[in-house]
Design brief:
This protein is about 40% helix and about 20% strand. By secondary structure, it is an alpha+beta fold. It has a five-stranded mixed sheet, with helices on both faces. Strand 3 (about 75-80) and strand 4 (about 85-95) form a beta hairpin. The longest helix has about 45 residues, at about 115-160. The protein starts with 11 loop residues before the first strand and ends in a 15-residue tail after the last helix.
């Protein structure tokens, strides 16, 4: 993409090299450790949300002959660091036009070396859970790729087009490219919100 106005500049990404370099995890860090800039946190939260929706749409575009039942199993992940902790969110499609953003877990970032024997264990477990989530996402993408390949090969062999609607016609979220100078004040009061039953509700 050559037009800089439409580029998304994330703090980090994990890509699936075996699957057309599809992106399965996005990271944003809001200011420095311990920062309490709520406006920046809110902006990065929504920026990350739209970034993940774009990643979901790209999967649908890449393997557009996969089945919707398989696609509903797909979770794309978002790590958001702010304050003294890092949060793990995921987004998945529930039905056409409906996407669920769920907070999977939260972990305090360990900074006190003297307490490393206590604080490091939950932090390591946090990333082990993230890794497991990414592995599950890769398995779903692998299945989508296989479904796509079978449908395309069958249509080619029969000399006609697959009559099924493409995933892209179903998975088409509204995506807004946020501008920090323009939108930060708008989203400042609408920060990350998780339900009381979510992990570490804050």
């Amino acid at each position: 993409m050559t037009d800089g106005r439409y580029k998304y500049k994330a703090d980090g990404l994990i890509c699936a090299n075996d699957f057309s370099s599809l992106e399965i995890l996005l990271t944003e860090v809001s200011s420095g450790y311990g920062s309490s800039d709520s406006s920046k946190v809110s902006f990065d939260h929504y920026k990350g949300m739209f970034g993940v929706l774009s990643m979901i749409r790209t999967v649908a575009q890449t393997y557009n002959k996969g089945t919707i039942d398989t696609f509903r199993k797909l979770k794309i992940h978002f790590l958001h660091g702010h304050g003294d902790a890092i949060r793990h969110w995921s987004i998945s499609m529930q039905k056409q036009g409906v996407f669920l953003m769920n907070k999977e877990q939260r972990a305090v970032v360990p900074v006190d070396f003297k307490e490393k024997d206590i604080s490091m264990v939950p932090f390591i477990q946090f990333y082990l859970t993230v890794a497991a989530g990414c592995e599950e996402s890769l398995e779903v993408i692998k299945q989508l790729k296989e479904e796509h390949k079978i449908a395309v090969n069958a249509a080619t062999a029969n000399g006609n087009q697959d009559s099924r609607p493409s995933l892209l016609s179903i998975v088409n979220p509204s995506i807004i490219r946020l501008n920090e100078r323009k939108h930060m004040s708008i989203v400042a009061e609408e920060g990350p919100i998780s339900v009381p039953s979510s992990p570490d509700h804050h």
